[in-house]
Amino acid sequence: MYAQEMKLPEGKQCAAFISVNLAAEFFWLSLDKRAAEMPKTLSLGQYGMTHGLPRLLSLLDELHIKATFFVPGKTAETYPEKIREIADRGHEIACHGYEYENFGLLDAEEQRERIGKAVKAIEDACGKKPAGFRAPIGDLMLETLDIAREYGMTYSSDLYDDDRPYFMKTNEKGDKILQIPQQWANFDLPYFAFNYRPAFPFGQGRVANYSNVLSNWKDEFTGHYNHRLCYNLQLDPQSTGSPGRFAMLREFLEYMCAHEGVWFATGSELADFCKQDEAAYPSLRETRVV
């Protein structure tokens, strides 16, 4: 049975959630702490902040798209001026863990401590607490999302089980958070990130063909558009920030913009819209087994 259409604002055909993960060098440090002494490896993530991010921000301004930036606390502490600039340009800053850690390996107390540190770092950098959460590398627990909710976050973008946002319970009391599902096919990092040590990908596959990735993204967006769903694009400037890949990204975003009735929404805008009509929302489920 095909999923129901997403309820959308009047005159809109689909939702488009442009999300940016600012993992920077902390992606590589999460794979191997010894990367702290590997300047070549660290430079991969640093390039995203010094070159990829400015290119992306200029393109988003040009196309009048507001995106949601998922920021680890360490990124906010290391690049506070970059985070302030993103917020000043009207984009949303959300939480992406503290050190790009695997929350599935941490107990509840340590998860709460790290999310709290991330929230403080983000607020210190841009003056506003994050309203959304996306777990970094690895897995997460249901309690992870409940802790994020306790810190004031109203949505997360972590799971893969739908093509539309939906409300999910995070505890036995029935407290809820909006889930904005994602797909690996719409994430640039698995296509383009490559390093010898620490090895990524572990099997050392080649960097993907740019034209094939562009085709994948266009096909997925077209499907979401035709079925009135929510397209979730994940970007990391260290992956699509190079001149050639940036040209591919520009072509894709312009392709999206050429479609009539695309609602480019931040995470908070999606959460606010869905909350307005939660009880009568046929495409949003009130409970979800995780």
Would you write up a description of this structure?
The protein is α/β, with parallel strands linked by helices. The protein has a single domain, classed as Glycoside hydrolase/deacetylase (TIM Barrel). The protein is built from eleven helices and nine strands. The protein has helices spanning about 25-30, 40-65, 75-80, 80-90, 110-125, 140-150, 190, 210-225, 235-240, 245-255, 265-275; strands at about 15-20, 70, 90-95, 130-135, 155, 165-170, 175-180, 230-235, 260-265. Strands 1, 2, 3, 8 and 9 form a five-stranded parallel beta sheet that branches. A four-stranded mixed beta sheet has the order 4-5-7-6, sandwiched between helices. Strand 6 and strand 7 (about 175-180) form a beta hairpin. The longest helix has 25 residues, at about 40-65. It is globular. About 45% of the residues are buried. Residues about 280-285 and about 285-290 have low confidence and may be disordered. One of its GO terms (molecular function) is hydrolase activity, acting on carbon-nitrogen (but not peptide) bonds. It comes from Anaerosacchariphilus hominis. InterPro entries: Glyco_hydro/deAcase_b/a-brl, NODB_dom, PgdA-like.
